Amino acid sequence: GAVVSQHPSWVICKSGTSVKIECRSLDFQATTMFWYRQFPKQSLMLMATSNEGSKATYEQGVEKDKFLINHASLTLSTLTVTSAHPEDSSFYICSARKYSGDEQFFGPGTRLTVL
Amino acid sequence: EDQVTQSPEALRLQEGESSSLNCSYTVSGLRGLFWYRQDPGKGPEFLFTLYSAGEEKEKERLKATLTKKESFLHITAPKPEDSATYLCAVMGYSTLTFGKGTMLLVSP
User: Fold this and answer.
1) Chain A residues 9-68 with a CB less than 8 Å from chain B
2) What is the CB neighbour count within 10 angstroms for residue B61?
């Protein structure tokens, strides 16, 4: 199998607070993890790519100081949305790729609502 | 820049009515084309990977095919539980580029 979990599944926070989202590969080691965001009826937009033990690579237009990514182990990556604002409200999805293979396996997503 | 266009945007079928979804792409050096299924409020579920023109993959009522410019996802005798959004993605150098998806609704 290739199961990826995310926690929490949904979160509501006040503007200005920080929110941490966890992504775990449950039955395999993920050398690379990815973070996406998805707006309603839109495609998944890659935010950043993270490799275990190294700094994340952010896509153009994504603020690295606002979206902090840590990939501390082969099974865990975290995304912290710092000083969240209503425009950060979205569906955040992580994925993980095994050492061998090109397929990405996705988590169930986290719905973030910033009031 | 890699691009993926999926059509139609939405498709409504009767149970048992076979059809095909299209994914047209442009990519610098195709490393793989992927199909995913996404249910509302959930993350995408991996279906197939295709690597070269002429390749076909099958899983239950689904069959994916690939040419040099497009891929098709054929759905044979669909059931209501096949209702979902089907996403196509291409991998060029290192990252996936997704299309917007085709929302499929199968009515009993």
Assistant:
1) 34, 41-44, 46, 49
2) 14
User: Does the beta-carbon distance from B36 to A106 stay under 8 Å?
Assistant: yes
Tell me if A111 and B41 make a contact (CB, 8 A cut-off): yes
Instruction: Please give the pLDDT value at position A82.
Output: 97
Please report which confidence band the pLDDT of residue B29 belongs to, taking 50, 70 and 90 as the band edges: confident
Alpha-carbon distance values, B82 to A71, B37, B56, B104 (Å): 35, 9, 20, 8
Reported as a pLDDT band with limits 50, 70 and 90, residue A58 is very high
Question: Rounded distance, CA A83 to CA B102, Å?
Answer: 35
Residues 6+ apart with CB under 8 A from A82: A18, A65, A66, A67, A68
pLDDT higher than threshold 80 for residue A1: no
